[in-house]
Amino acid sequence: MKQGKQISTKQRWMRNLTYLFLGAIFGAFYGFFGVLISKFGLPPFVNLDNFLFCLRIITFVIFAGTIYFGIKANQKYHLYHSISDEDEEHFDELYKKMYRNLEYATISFNVAVSLTLLNLVLGFGVTFLEESAVMYGSILDVVFYVILLISQVFIVKLTQKIRDYKLSAFATVKEMKDFAEAMDEGEKQANYEMSFQIVFTLNQIVLPGLYLFLFVLSMLLQERQIMAFLVVAFLHIYINVMQVRMVRRYFK
C-alpha cells in the first residue's frame, strides 16, 4: 500500500486535547441546563406542537429549495444543448452548473423526505381506550408526503434527462449500483471518497458520540434510553458487519 500523508504526533495530541476541551465545555453546559430543567421544568413554549410547527416550516423551505435547484438544472440543461461545441469555456461552465444544481435538488429532496418522515412519526399516534383505539395526527404531513412521492417522479425524470440514463423512480440497490458505475471516473471517485468519509465519521465519531449523549441524557432524566441505545447499537453493528461483504468480494 502507498503511504498517505499523516499529521504529526503533536498535531494529533492538539486535536485530541481540543476535542476533550470542547467535550468538557459541552458537558458543563449540558449538566447546568439539565439541573435547571429538572428544577424548574421546560419553558411553556418548548413542546412537541411548536417543535413540529417549526419542523414543517423548515421542511417546506427545503422543498422550495428542491424546486428552485430543479428549475435551475433544467434551464442549464437547455442552455447546455443550445450552445456550440466551439465555445468550450462556456460549455464546461454550464456542464458543471447543470450537474451541481441537479445534485443540490436531489440532496434537498432527500432531506425534505427525511424531515417529513420525522414529522409523521412524531405527529401521529394511537391512544388505546377500553373498547376502542383513537388515532391522531396532522393531515398536513400526510399530504406533504404524498406531494414528495409525486415530486420524486419529476426528480428522477430530470435526472434521466440530464444524465441520459434510464432510472426507476423507486430503484433497487442493484439499479443504483449500475447507475453509479455509469458515472464518469472523476464523479465516481468523488462518490467513493465521500462514501468512505461518511462511513468512517459515523463509525468513529457520530455513533460513539451518540452513546455518550444518550448516557448523559439517561443520567439527567434518571431513565435509561434503552430503545435509543438499541437503535444506535444496531446501526453501529450494521455498518461494521456490512464490511464483510467487501472483504469476501475483494479477497475471495
From TrEMBL:
<feature type="transmembrane region" description="Helical">
    <location>
        <begin position="226"/>
        <end position="244"/>
    </location>
</feature>
<feature type="transmembrane region" description="Helical">
    <location>
        <begin position="198"/>
        <end position="220"/>
    </location>
</feature>
<feature type="transmembrane region" description="Helical">
    <location>
        <begin position="20"/>
        <end position="38"/>
    </location>
</feature>
<dbReference type="Pfam" id="PF11368">
    <property type="entry name" value="DUF3169"/>
</dbReference>
<keyword id="KW-1133">Transmembrane helix</keyword>
<protein>
    <submittedName>
        <fullName>Membrane protein</fullName>
    </submittedName>
</protein>
<dbReference type="InterPro" id="IPR021509">
    <property type="entry name" value="DUF3169"/>
</dbReference>
<keyword id="KW-0472">Membrane</keyword>
<feature type="transmembrane region" description="Helical">
    <location>
        <begin position="104"/>
        <end position="129"/>
    </location>
</feature>
<feature type="transmembrane region" description="Helical">
    <location>
        <begin position="135"/>
        <end position="156"/>
    </location>
</feature>
<keyword id="KW-0812">Transmembrane</keyword>
<feature type="transmembrane region" description="Helical">
    <location>
        <begin position="50"/>
        <end position="71"/>
    </location>
</feature>
